[in-house]
Write a structure and sequence with these properties.
Elements (H helix, E strand, L loop, with lengths): L1 H10 L13 E7 L6 E7 L11 H5 L10 E7 L2 E8 L2 H12 L6 E8 L8 H11 L8 E6 L2 E8 L2 H12 L6 E8 L2
Parallel strand pairs: 4-5, 7-8
Antiparallel strand pairs: 1-2, 3-4, 6-7
Amino acid sequence: MRILVEYAARDAPAGRQFDDEIAPVPVSFTSPNGAKPKKHDIIFKTDEGPRADTSLGALAKLKPAFHAKGAVTADVLDGYVTLSGQVRHYFQRQAAHHAVSNVEGVLGIDNRVTLSSDPMPSDVADRIQKAFRRNAIIDDSLITVTNVGHTIQLNGVVNSWAALDAAEDTAWQAPGVMQVVDDLKVVP
């Protein structure tokens, strides 16, 4: 899709055909200025590309910007974004969704990013319980953690919604987790 956009922009008269579709982006940066760094505030409002020497072959030779074991692509159609690909951790899936949700003009997101099936340690439930004990928000004595395959099951009682969120987030951070079933109850 990016290639089609590049070709359309390249073929536009004097490169100005899409000016009304480019959103100005404010950027602040500090440049070294001897002992007195200088702050600059500028607004990018002109598309500086594509370069005249851009070709499909040159773009195909570019080094990937993603980790080899996890890449996310975004396809956009009429403001609706479909995320696809595979990542190693749930937080990476969430980060991709979050990054796209902050883009102006996005009307909806279909997050089809999957998690890779990395090996799950045999003691993953114990690791999660130990992580609960290190977290001041979670009372681990009231939570039971079990796993079947790549699925973690949380059962028990927590004393706040914050503790419930922290317990679920902690379970997602364990290696090899592809699903967390949260059957925790909040009892203040």
